[in-house]
Input
Amino acid sequence: MTLTPTHPAPTAHSCVETAVTDTAEPSTTEPSTAEPSTAETSTDYEDVCALEDLVPERAAAALVAGAQVALVRLLDDSVYALGQHDPFSDANVMSRGIVGSATVDGVDVPTLQSPMYKQPFDVRTGRCLVDDEVSLQTRGVRVRDGRVLVARRPAGTPTQAGA
Output
């Protein structure tokens, strides 16, 4: 039996080769005309890769300010950044997870599923959908002029399984 992937095989991404708000918000693909506030400057974000380098519905690994993150581009071109560390397996593997969705209280939620033990995480918040006490770190993301910018600092502290 031969399985045919629904997406083309990923190519080498500049996101993997190269190493952005305080909450995980969907990225915007519109060029920004707003000036940075005093609390947030362009140095708070790191240019990681081109939007076109990210395959929709696939996660990719990147380094941001020395930390491993999993970038997820959805079909609507929104991009999310989550911690690469899987709190259940204690391994940096989240970018190898499955991008999908789950229905929570009647609403479709975009998810990244752990490749190890298959726990789904909400890509918008990092919250584990099967264990409310566990979450992944999140980082803000912006897309400007076709470039993906990721916050250098995480939005919050992740919680560990069994902690």
Q: What stands out?
A: Residues 1-26, 28-38 have pLDDT under 50 and may be disordered. The longest strand covers residues 67-73. DSSP finds one helix and twelve strands in the chain.
